[in-house]
Amino acid sequence: MPPDKFRLASLSLMIAAILWILVFLVQPFDFWIMLASSTLILLLISVLINRSKWDAEINVRVVVFGVLSAVLLYGFFYLGFQVTKSNPMLSEGVSRVYEFRSSVPSILIGSMLVFPIGPGEEIYWRGLIQRRFAERLGANTGLLIAATAYALVHLPTLNPPLILTAFIGGLVWGYLYKVTGSIVPAVISHVLWDLLIFVVAPLN
């Protein structure tokens, strides 16, 4: 009897939580190396559990969805930062996120965001977690659970802007996956948004 993919996906959330604690709190190695390695592990877990063909067709529709959503999401956070940057707690939280940039050159950060970080996170959180929970509990519930779990693994950072950003991003990328049935627009959106936020036009 084949293993229950929903059960395996659920159990894998413990691995994701441990990995994110290592990345953000323990940090036995450089933050970016740890994050890239962790997303590679999650990507491998996704492939091993799903063991099925991905809907990864690239066409104009999914590319437009991905690019447009990335730009709109960046604009949303840019405006939000401008409105809230006078709040010490929120501005400090954003500054703490950008402290990670100083560890390695921007071009190396950008390369790791393109692969494996952006694609790896989407293939795991949307392609595995959202997909399997949606199959069991319905599309909307699967989307919400995946976005919430994605935010909760950031909880140990005790950084409200980071946790909220993960939740909002999870909702947007989850919605793209839900309405298109393809992982491609979510990957494109996540990668482009990461590049805008961390490399091209950082908020601070």
Describe this structure in words.
The model has no long low-confidence stretch (mean pLDDT 93). The radius of gyration is 16 Å and the shape is globular. α3 (60-84) packs antiparallel against α7 and α5 (106-137) runs antiparallel to α8. The N and C termini lie far apart (53 Å). It is an all-alpha fold. The chain is built from eight helices and no strands.
> Treating each run of at least 4 consecutive H or I residues as one helix, how many helices?
8
Structural class: mainly alpha
Mean pLDDT: 93
Strand content: under 5%
What is the succession of H and E elements?
A: HHHHHHHH
The end-to-end span amounts to: 53 Å
As a whole number of angstroms, the C-alpha radius of gyration is: 16 Å
What is the assembly state of the chains in this entry? Answer: single chain
Report on the biggest sheet: none
Q: How does the SSE layout of this entry go?
A:
Layout: H1 5-26, H2 31-50, H3 60-84, H4 88-98, H5 106-137, H6 139-152, H7 160-180, H8 184-200
Which key features would you list for this structure?
79% helix, 204 residues, globular, mainly alpha
